[in-house]
């Protein structure tokens, strides 16, 4: 494909995406295809000769879109949102076109420096503690996901807990990671990857709001120490996956300081809320964390993948992860004047993800981003009010952000039946969790296309179908 043909087909692709977005409302939110149907539409082998591009594009409509869960659909209320937006897609397109591999400062100076400044911008935007800014000993980096951020934090924490010998010796003692029973599964995965095995993570009890109980944390730490186990890391969460509970950072960070334990704060979804000053109280106590992350790719209009991860002391992180073979040596690295982000992550290679953040931050501006978050929070609050006012339902947890957890008072079977009926309509999509063992529906507002009318419609549907589902527990 030469440059002129690329220009022509590139316009067609952008048109296709714009049409896809504007037609989303008319599609069912989830795929209506049985397993295997999509694969069956693909030939068994790649074509011998190159095909014409129009045909490739046309096949998106026949092969791909009928088999999708449409995460950008205005009726998508499942999991947490996975936002994208025009500026994000275009920033990613430029990144793909540049094809830069920014493993070292020297392999793409702008790739590194734009990223450093974007992470400093984001730190300002969220009003994060000054220690995370690159102008001091800390700094931020883009990871592919919050899971990777947790893994990297786990490795750095082990390095610290081992007095600097983990790097050379590996896991020679029994180390422990602490999180609440509501902590994300990536914490357990990171501990397993790090070699801590079945006993690596201790799930600390929570209070009635499903937030980590600091008294139970202290008890677990002292019991472990007495048994010869080394406490290495506490992962606190702002906005747990199940119900968006907020762990009490001031008390947790006090304990971490007392025992010299690395504190990582996982705000994968809810971190975006801190762009709004009125929601920053959810981050109180962050000033003593060793690391913090959130996913602009969830609720901040930036396409997957983009996790923003900060450390208070970048030297500790680099010391943990740096491996420098001869073929990567260069004068800039040796001068000590540059950041080499390969030392801040697991893979060596990295693409220019900061471009999409740059495009998003500049296109929306601080006020545009705040408007997006506020709309989600307000619509969720409206939905929660309807639930509260309807005696067939109960709210299961507070809704500090844009997730509402609710269920039918009639019981688990009725609630599960309601979810199945709602999703079968194809008009909206919700997911579920269990809270204290009981089946709970989750409605997460946050798709950029979701408007007031969509949340009103969602409530109308929930309300109408509840009566039918209500029978399930009594049948
Ligand atoms: N942490 C929390 C609190 C989450 O809710 C999630 C995903 O929903 C993750 C981590 C994992 O995010 P990622 O897909 O970026 O690894």
From TrEMBL:
GO terms for cellular component: cytoplasm. Keywords: Decarboxylase, Lyase, Pyridoxal phosphate. The keyword Lyase applies. The keyword Lyase applies. Its cofactor is pyridoxal 5'-phosphate. Belongs to the group II decarboxylase family. This is Aromatic-L-amino-acid decarboxylase.
